[in-house]
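Ticket #4471: structure output looks truncated?

Reporter: J.K.
Steps to reproduce: submitted the chain below (100 residues) through the standard prediction queue, then opened the result file.
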Amino acid sequence: MRLFLSLCATLVFAGVAAPAAADGVWPAEATCYWCIRDAIYDDFKLIAHREADPDVDEAVKGPEIIAARADIHRLRKMLGPLQSDGTEPCCYSRRPLYVR
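Returned output as attached by the reporter:
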């Protein structure tokens, strides 16, 4: 019985310590970047779905599209300019492929 209780206590302490240790894996800026990027993608999908839906009146979907575009501009300002790590972009650092 004592072995079972000590095993349960060990599992409880491991479960409590795991989320606290996982906090240091991603820096706060990286997490914020991914959240902002996902929000921008969601706004783009909303705009695409609203523009493609013929059953909804223009007066209803117009303000939603304008608000989503304004949100995209606001989120892009929060991200700031793209910062590259290297001296040249990854796409141009490869040798070109020639297909015969």
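Triage note (M.O.): checked the attachment and the full token line is present. The two ends are 74 Å apart (CA to CA).
Status: closed, working as intended.
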